[in-house]
Amino acid sequence: MNKLLILVGALAMIACTNHTPVIHGPYEIESVDLKNDVAAIKSGDLVLEVEFDPMYFKDGNGYASWNEFTIHEVKNVKVFNEDGETEKYVLPSEEVSNIVNLIEKEVAENLE
Fold it and tell me: How far is CA 82 from the centre of its chain?
């Protein structure tokens, strides 16, 4: 019985040290850079750098009109913690949709 408790405790310690963060809301937008198509979003102790491919209307002179801005796809997400960029994280697909909606809403509100 004691050996089983020691084994379970050791497995629990290993699981805690190999913790992979699961990213979820609430989110707070720190910045949206429409020239470089990047947004910085805070989620708890993590900061996500989201690179996206926007779709927008171009007027007759070829200038982008952000009035009809949508995100076509998310190209890349980099996650940073207090130690720098982290390679191990889980970002569920429904959370990606939430992040896209948040960025689109932020852009729309800043245009008004």
Answer: 16
pLDDT digits (tens, 9 = 90+) for 37-87: 999 999 999 999 999 998 876 666 666 555 677 898 999 999 999 889 988
DSSP β-ladder status, 46-58 and 64-81? antiparallel
How many C-beta atoms lie closer than 10 Å to residue 108's C-beta?
14
pTM of model > 0.90: no
38 and 51 Cβ atoms separated by less than 8 Å? yes
| Per-domain boundaries in the chain | 22-111
d(CA 42, CA 34): 18
- Residue 71 pairs in a beta bridge with 54
